[in-house]
């Protein structure tokens, strides 16, 4: 039950983020719906393909689908209202979605007795795959590969579940709070993963 | 039989549109063939993956494959000849393809007893998925998400079939004529779906 | 055994090329790993989906996965060291990967008794699909569709296997040497496939 509520929060956050990107790119109303739906369900769909969940599972999420469509409609009809609150609540609900989806994706793969690598990939794809597809459809560089730490928390969740550290309900909720909090810390304090420019390194070296 | 003729017209139109985009982007001859094939078959391939059609179905379309390869060859060898006629016939044949493919995609999903959402998604993907992959491979913003109404007609076709409004041969042909005509009206009269720029809205609101 | 060594060389070359593109685009360390992994395994994953190999096959490549992760780590930690040697060895090892992967992809599809078109597509996707996904994630125009002849050698390999010209071990090794050599010739002597700009043609024609 609790996981369902968290999944619903995440679905809304992902759908809204897709709709906003589409509006920023001046896509038409259909583009807004498509990017919203793709962001909310694309990560799970790619995960299902890669770990071999029967595709019919995708089409049994009727309730989530309707909630996503409803959220996107709200964004399109009342964009001003949303934008006032999105800066404060958008990142927060998105963190809940990242965390809830990563944990559920990892549990899916673990239940199918896939090896650790598959569990970790399932966690990353479910948590951040939708955002990557969204950015590619909007012709942007995928945000999760460059900005404040995002997908890395999903990876840690995947390891925690794949290695069997988190199994009981209590452990999974603790993991959920951990991932959500650290994602919130990441954008609040601008935590970034190290990056390395090949060219700077080279020039530095050749001096 | 009639559907096969319509599918062949659509396959040619899609393959040619992919080849033209590749030549506009100065891809080499192989890129021209790849974009042509991807545009003609990509939408159906993604649909098959998402609704669970066995993939072998993709490889039984030998005739369509050869027709697509032949069309692309003609485009590459006689581009001047084609361009004279493409402005007049290109959009027309593409409308036939959109319509025929959307209806067949929806019928596929309906036959598998998927819910309405899957039927609609199958219609959209089969009708316009190839064009989206084409634009992404050419690093363009997907046209169908921004320009004159396109994928929306596929969605309406999906609803008509998913809700059981169109079942008999006669109803399906009527639906086909309807989608084709309205797509032609869309580009002839520049019908666009509403779009909403977040920034304009905001500035408008904050004045 | 020999094929395994060649596959390992190819996996390293592909993973390193993905990591380098990510560093050129200033992605963070996670982006470097993701692009490396996607380049090394993305082509095979798409092929598996399209020809119907059970997805579990993807997760049984533990050794290759670890080798890829190790190579990417080396690139990220010692970029200067790598860049000194990459120009000489990068294209060479990449040619081995293209050739080994194309042949194995074609053999997979042939073993499943798919028609010729599927064998050729499997060869192309396994050999160059990862590079295409890499370029799209980095928001670049796919290199293999424009630069020195690349995927075309994979296509020739696909035909050789699909038509039954190369069956015995000896024939397959000969094919491997042929594809590798011709890829090396292609970038050494700047062999390009013909391309045709629609606009130049047109202006030429209308003069």
TrEMBL record, chains A, B, C:
Belongs to the UPF0126 family. The keyword Iron does not apply. It is a multi-pass membrane protein. Its main location: membrane. It is found in: Cell membrane. Residues 5-78, 92-161 form the Glycine transporter domain. PANTHER family: INNER MEMBRANE PROTEIN, UPF0126 INNER MEMBRANE PROTEIN YADS-RELATED. Keywords: Cell membrane, Membrane, Transmembrane, Transmembrane helix. The keyword Repressor does not apply. This is Trimeric intracellular cation channel family protein. Pfam families: Gly_transporter. The chain crosses the membrane at residues 6-23, 30-51, 63-82, 116-137, 149-166, 172-189.
């Amino acid at each position: 039950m609790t996981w369902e509520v968290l999944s619903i929060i995440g679905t809304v956050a992902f759908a809204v983020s897709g709709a906003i990107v589409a509006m920023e790119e001046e896509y038409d109303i259909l583009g807004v719906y498509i990017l919203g739906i793709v962001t909310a369900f694309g990560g799970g769909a790619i995960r299902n393909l890669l770990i071999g969940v029967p595709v019919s599972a995708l089409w049994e999420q009727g309730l989530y689908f309707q909630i996503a469509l409803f959220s996107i409609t709200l964004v399109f009809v009342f964009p001003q209202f949303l934008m006032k609150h999105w800066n404060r609540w958008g990142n927060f609900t998105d963190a809940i979605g990242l965390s809830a989806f990563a944990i559920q994706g990892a549990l899916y793969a673990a239940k199918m007795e896939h090896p650790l690598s598959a569990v970790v990939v399932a966690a990353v794809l479910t948590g951040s795959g939708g955002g990557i597809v969204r950015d590619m459809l909007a012709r942007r560089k995928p945000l999760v590969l460059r900005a404040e730490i995002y997908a890395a928390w999903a990876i840690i969740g995947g390891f925690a579940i794949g290695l069997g550290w988190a199994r009981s309900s209590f452990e999974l909720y603790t993991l959920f709070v951990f991932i959500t909090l650290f994602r919130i810390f990441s954008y609040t304090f601008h935590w970034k993963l190290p990056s390395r420019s090949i060219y700077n390194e080279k020039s530095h070296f050749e001096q």
